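Data deposition worksheet. Section B asks for the primary sequence of the deposited chain exactly as it was used as input, without tags or linkers unless they were present during the calculation. Section C holds the resulting structure in token form. Section D is free text for depositor observations; keep each observation to a single sentence. Incomplete worksheets are returned to the depositor.
Section A, Depositor: J.P.
Section B:
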Amino acid sequence: MKHYTIKILRTLCLVPILAFSFTTVAQAEMAADKPMKMSMPHDDMHKDGMGSEDMKQSMKSGMDSMQNMEMSGDVDKDFAMMMKMHHQGALDMAKMELAHGKSPAMKAMAKKIITAQKKEIAQFDRWLAKHK
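Section C:
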């Protein structure tokens, strides 16, 4: 595999990792500025935080899958396979937003993401089926 191809693929792998890292750091900084609410009943705390924890675990699982994917040496095929995984992660997160989110604006965006990502995953699947 050519050097520039490897660089492109490494960069593609790093984008979701960096986005996740920046998000995590920003959340940690915001959390440090706010005292923890201890007055909320434990059941309610678990219910409200469940979507966020599920989303974080889903993101981690998706990143692990992309990092552990064996590269074929065919840039087009590797791109399609990795982007399919990346889009599936977006679908999973959008579904969690619909299930646990409260903002009508974020729920509307999640619905748009689901529609768009499903369409693109189908395109990747069709292309991959033709290029085995």
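Section D:
Residues 5 and 16 are 18 Å apart (CA to CA).
The two ends are 18 Å apart (CA to CA).
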